[in-house]
Amino acid sequence: MVGPYRGLFSTPGVKGFVIAGFLGRMPMSMLGIGIVMLIEALTDSFAMAGAVAATVNVSYAVAAPLTGRLVDRFGQARVIVPFTLAHGAALAGLMLCAELQAPVWSLFAAGVVAGASAVSLGSLVRARWTHLLAGSAKLHAAFSFESVADEVIFVAGPALVSALATAVNPYAGLIVALVCTVVGTIAFAMQRGTEPPVRRGEKHSGTPITIPGIALLSCVFLAMGAVFGSVDLITVAFAEEQGAKPAAGLLLASVAGGSLVSGLWYGARQWKISLRRRFVRALGVFAAGLTPIALIGDVKIMVPALFLAGLAISPTIITGYALVERLVPAHLLTEGMSWVSTAVGFGVALGAWAGGRLTDVFGASNAYGFSFACAVLAVIIGVGGSTWLRTPIPQQ
Asked: Which superkingdom is the protein from (predicted)?
């Protein structure tokens, strides 16, 4: 299984941007949970906690395509350093407002700035892989590796932030997330040797979202994001409902663990069927895997159930990014990938908000039904518009 990944790191400079990129995007699994646990501890309301977390995600989703376009036009380093510094300052402001018990609107204001200035580092890392390996069969392994790295983050991040928030204080998780973001992203920006060049001769008019396949993928990932956002919040509430709040990190890590295992397996295989067919099949497995969690009321049983629910996540995301790489012109690639991130961000925001409301009204166990419904919606959209996902380049 390790074989296909061995040759990825022989290119000079790869190890540097991979390590920095890993550290810089660690907070993507920590920020939402950290905000939920902090605000819930202060207000005793999952609805309020979900609303603040959703504000961050919506702001990020709105700004991500613009950030991607700026990166395509001016280069990664020139854009992400000032954005990251602004993001760090906004997170610090959010925690300060919480500490000083400032008006509720100040939490939302800080959340807007924090989200709008967040950098889609996963898209930038994948753009570097595409620049280095374009046209090579190794690109599939590289995208698979990055998806596995994402899942390692989603295994470690929730457990770490939950432990810090419960064992140290509610602010500790966000402080660690802030440090990882600033240090990792600036270190990533300093790796100039692997940075994709700015294509100054290319016209930057138009936007990838007008490509039918990208629009379809964005809708699918919007629904998937709603699953991610709702499952994250509902699972924290489920653990508390069952009298095992410290187990929230373990439960969330189970989802990521399933995705990690499937990502390793998926990336190690040489696939003969098309990307389009792989994507549709992975979506079907994704929806099927979520069925059991709406029927379980015990923490111990929920751990393996969430592991199974996570098995289809990595293959779906890996294939989705590969489709973007095939469907979008090279000079708009970062923006194209940012539209996927935007869709996920909007979905996570919707899921966090809806999950919080449904949890407060119906209880955590019943609220999982919303997550399953969103997964079914993703399948319906993906299957219904799959003809738009035919890639112009033959499969290798």
From this structure: Bacteria
List pLDDT tens digits, range 184-206. 999 999 998 889 888 665 555 67
Q: How many domains does the chain have?
A: 1
Question: Helix 121-133 to helix 333-362 angle, to the nearest 10 degrees?
Answer: 150
Count the neighbouring beta carbons within 10 Å of the beta carbon of residue 171.
Answer: 19
Crossing angle for the helix pair 138-167 and 31-43, to the nearest 10 degrees = 20
Within 8 A by CB and 6+ apart from 115, the residues are: 55, 56, 57, 58, 59, 60, 61, 62, 63, 345
Report d(CA 62, CA 293) in Å as an integer: 31
Say if CB 277 and CB 258 are below 8 A apart.
no
pLDDT tens-place string over residues 17-62: 999 999 999 888 788 888 888 888 877 777 778 788 878 878 888 8
Q: Is residue 377 part of a domain?
A: yes
Neighbours of 79 (CB within 10 A): 21
**Is residue 6 one of the residues assigned to a domain?**
no
**Domain span including residue 303:** 14-198+207-389
pTM: 0.77
The residues, ordered by sequence, that sit 6+ positions from 82 with a Cβ below 8 Å of its Cβ are none
CATH of the domain at 312: 1.20.1250.20
The full DSSP string for 275-305 is HHHHHHHHHHHHHHHHTGGGG---HHHHHHH
Give the integer Cα–Cα distance in Å for 80 and 123. Answer: 12
Query: How far apart, in whole angstroms, are the C-alpha atoms of residue 227 and residue 147?
Result: 18
